[in-house]
Design goal:
Strand content: 15-25%
Number of domains: 2
Number of strands: 8
Largest sheet: 2 strands, antiparallel
Radius of gyration: 15 Å
Order of helices and strands: EEEEEEEEH
Helix content: 10-25%
Shape: globular
Distance between the termini: 22 Å
Oligomer: single chain
Strand order of the largest sheet: 1-2
Structural class: alpha+beta
Length: 106
């Protein structure tokens, strides 16, 4: 499992719980916890439309956030306030998300 701390939208690719600075593999970007992005996604409140559905209805009216790639509920055509995506909450959600991405792309 990866750390997933973010800075300027870049995700730390070190193991969760690592010691020392955060790092994006393949780059020279390093940061500490004090420099990390706030958990709230900067795209919260942005205009959005529901994502295309799979045959079973997934993602159930949610929109795909263009900043953090989370599926987010909509409030009057805008992304609800949400934290940047840090991974799926369950194996089932990860499987559905993977199927959606393979079907509809980014």
């Amino acid at each position: 499992m990866l750390c997933l701390s973010r800075r300027s939208g870049e995700i730390c690719t070190r193991r969760a719980g690592h010691a020392g600075l955060h790092n994006r593999t393949g780059s020279s970007i390093l940061w500490g916890d004090i420099d990390a992005d706030a958990p709230r996604c900067p795209a919260s409140g942005s205009p959005a439309v529901p994502a295309p559905k799979l045959p079973d209805g997934y993602p159930h009216g949610r929109a795909l956030c263009s900043a953090c790639f989370a599926f987010v509920t909509l409030d009057d055509g805008e992304l609800s306030a949400h934290d940047s995506w840090r991974g799926d909450e369950s194996r089932e959600e990860a499987d559905r998300r993977r199927e959606w991405m393979n079907t509809h792309g980014w």
